[in-house]
Amino acid sequence: MPDGTQAINPFTVKTSVDVDDKGTPKAYKIVIQDTVTGQVISSSSINADKVTDNNILLKLDLGTNTDKPTEKLKPTIQNPSPL
């Protein structure tokens, strides 16, 4: 590891696709989450019409991420989706 840097916690990158009633992609959702603290580092949704025809959907610069939040996380409660 280079001098002046420190390791971050492991993280997951989860992707999902929002489709219309015909199965055509409308948007792609990307969530990056710290697997140790549970902190969501980044969450974004990209409209399908903004994605170019190549294999790059996400460019991630790990140099801008930190595994130590500067503010204490505030717990939130979300209602589950109706069945």
Structure description:
The mean pLDDT is 77. β2 (25-34) and β3 (40-47) form a beta hairpin. This protein has a three-stranded antiparallel beta sheet with strand order 1-2-3, with no helix packed on it. It is mostly beta strands and 83 residues long. The chain has no helices and three strands. It is 0% helix and 33% strand.
Describe this protein with a few key phrases.
3 strands; about 80 residues
Map the helices and strands:
Elements (H helix, E strand, L loop, with lengths): L10 E9 L5 E10 L5 E8 L36
Antiparallel strand pairs: 1-2, 2-3
Average pLDDT across residues? 77
Largest sheet, in brief, is:
3 strands, antiparallel
Strand-pairing-aware structural class:
mainly beta
Q: What is the CA-atom radius of gyration, in angstroms?
A: 16 Å
Low-confidence stretches: none
Tally of contiguous helical segments: 0
- Helical content, roughly? under 10%
The number of distinct β-strands equals 3
Sketch the topology as an H/E string, one letter per element: EEE
Q: Separation of termini?
A: 48 Å
Strand order of the largest sheet: 1-2-3
Dominant shape: flat
Structure described in brief:
The chain is 0% helix and 33% strand. With 83 residues, the chain is mostly beta strands. The radius of gyration is 16 Å and the shape is flat.
